[in-house]
Protein: Protein-methionine-sulfoxide reductase catalytic subunit MsrP
Organism: Polynucleobacter wuianus
Amino acid sequence: MVFIDKTIVPSDITPKAVFENRRTLIKAAAAGSFGAALAPWFSREALAATPEKLSATLNSTYSTKDEATPYKYVTSYNNFYEFGTDKSDPAANAGSLQTRPWTISIEGLVKKPVILDIDALLKLASMEERIYRMRCVEGWSMIIPWDGYSLSKLIDKVEPLGSAKYVEFISLADRKQMPGISSNIINWPYREGLRMDEAMNPLTLLTFGLYGEVLPKQNGAPVRIVVPWKYGFKSAKSIVKIRFTEEMPKTSWNQFDAREYGFYSNVNPQVDHPRWSQATERRIGDPKGMFAPKIKTQMFNGYADQVASMYAGMDLKKYY
Ligand SMILES: Nc1nc2c(c(=O)[nH]1)N[C@H]1C(S)=C(S)[C@@H](COP(=O)(O)O)O[C@H]1N2
Ligand SMILES: [Mo]
C-alpha cells in the first residue's frame, strides 16, 4: 500500500450530534411522525434514499467510550481498492455494487457447508452495536459504531472439523461492478484470513451495518468482517465466501509484499512497518485536523485484555 495522504480533515459537527440526529430522524421517519410538519425537502424520495435501519442493541462491554468518528468521515474516507485507490474513490464509485441478491458460501473443512442468502444470514443471531477503535496500517484511526454479531455464532452453526485451523475470507471480485478490479494492484479477489481462535474470539464481528443502518457500499456492504485489534486491511469487505482450511491461507496483502504485511498484522506500536513507524496515529475527524496531537497507538489497539492470551509465547516481531 503506497499511500500519499493529502487530506486535511476539518470537523464542523460533533460526532454525538450526528449520531443522535440520524437516529432521531430515522425513528421519526419510520414512525411517520413528521406529519404535516414534514419539511418540503424531506420528500418521499428523500425517505426512500434513507439507508435501511438496523435495530441493534449496544454492547457496552465491548464498546470503547471514545467519541465516535462522525458518520461523514466513516463513509467518505475509505480503503476499498475494488473501487479505486484514493480515499474518496469508494464513496464516489461504490454505487454500482449490487448488494441484492447476495449469497455467502461457507465451505471447506466443516460438517455443514452451506450457501446462505444474505437476508437469512442477517437473522442468524441478534444484532449488537459495538463501538470499536479501528487502526489502519497507514497510521490513521477512527472510532466506528458497527452493527453485527460475533462471527463465532455463524462458525458454531457450520461445525468446523478438527482439522480446520484457519478461516479464509474472500471478497467479491466482479469487473462489471467494481472498476478497480481492472488494475492489477493486488491479486483479486481480495482475500484475508484468521487463525481459528482469532475467528472465534467474541470481538471478531460479522458486520452488516454501522451507526444503526445497513452498511454503506463503500464500507463493505452487505457483509464484512471487523477485527478491531488488527490493522484495517484484515477486515475484508463485501465477502462472498468463508472457507475453513488446514493451511494458513495466502492473503492478498501478504502476497503483495510479505515483508510489509504479515498474516497476523496485530496492531503493535513496537513493530514498525518497514517504511514508517507504527507508534502513533492520527484520529480522522479531529477538529484540530493536521494540528491534532498524535495519539499513542496501543498494543493490540487497546484490546490486549481480550486478545493477548491468544499470542502468549509468540515472538510478535517475527509473527507480525
Ligand atoms: N475487499 C476489501 N476489503 C478491505 C479493503 C479493500 O481494499 N478491499 N481495504 C481494507 C483496509 S486497508 C481498511 S483500513 C479497511 C477500511 O474500512 P472502512 O473503509 O470501512 O473504514 O477495509 C479493509 N478491507
Ligand atoms: Mo488499512
User: Anything to note?
Assistant: The two ends are 16 Å apart (CA to CA). The chain has nine helices and 13 strands.
